[in-house]
Predict the 3D structure of the following.
Amino acid sequence: MRSTIRLLASVKSGRYLEPGNPTGLTGLFTHPAPRSTLVYLYSSTLDKLKAFPESSVYRQSAESITRHRLKIVESIKPDGYDAWSEKARKTIADHPEVFNTPEGRTAHDKGKNIRSVHDGRTFVTTQLPEEQDERLVEWDGEKAPAELEGTRTRAERKSQRLLGMERPGSDQKTVEWTPEPPLAASQVEEMENQIGAGLIEEVIQVAEGELKLVDTMLESRIWEELEEKAPQGQWEYFARDLHMPTTQAPPNPSK
């Protein structure tokens, strides 16, 4: 599928897929980091499914397909992945305060890099600043506050006192985080073929939907018995052997 849709959507060919390029499906663009995104989504889903009883049919089926696809995704690694992974572990170990942002404490680097653990896997989520064209931003009429000059009262100098209590430099600590190396186009195609559910961007959309669905299923407590029992015979219409109770005999070639 990718070899036709992708090439029809973009004439430019290369070893790596260009993020943001059309995929050939309306409104769906090439994802910049499909592997790490799927690992994060699948691990988060598995974490949430642990809140369901093990006897839940939904948990069993969702866990089965999620673990199957996660195994496929993790088995395909980009070039330089092992070296990147080792460097990432060392960076987190050397600067734990930058990647951990407990509530009520200072968010180093403006909370840009957040460390989390899902299903035993460690992830670093990076919040990228939104690019904004100042030419397109309309003035809302707000005026900049006037700065006072000369001697100020103690109340007016309160903000200066709080500013002086900050630890110089410690709250502005930044660490350069390198994202996971990208997959080659051939690796993405291999992943798509093994999963067998369309383009990798479609697989990501399904994984995002499943992660949201888990919350709905948990809130509805779907593993519990119905408050009102279903009427007898309600599901007989959907029985597989209703209209053809026996398998049709194969034709006899001798006749």
In short: The two ends are 44 Å apart (CA to CA). The beta strands are 113-118, 121-126. Confidence is low (pLDDT under 50) at residues 8-12, 102-106, 167-171. The first helix runs from residue 2 to 9.
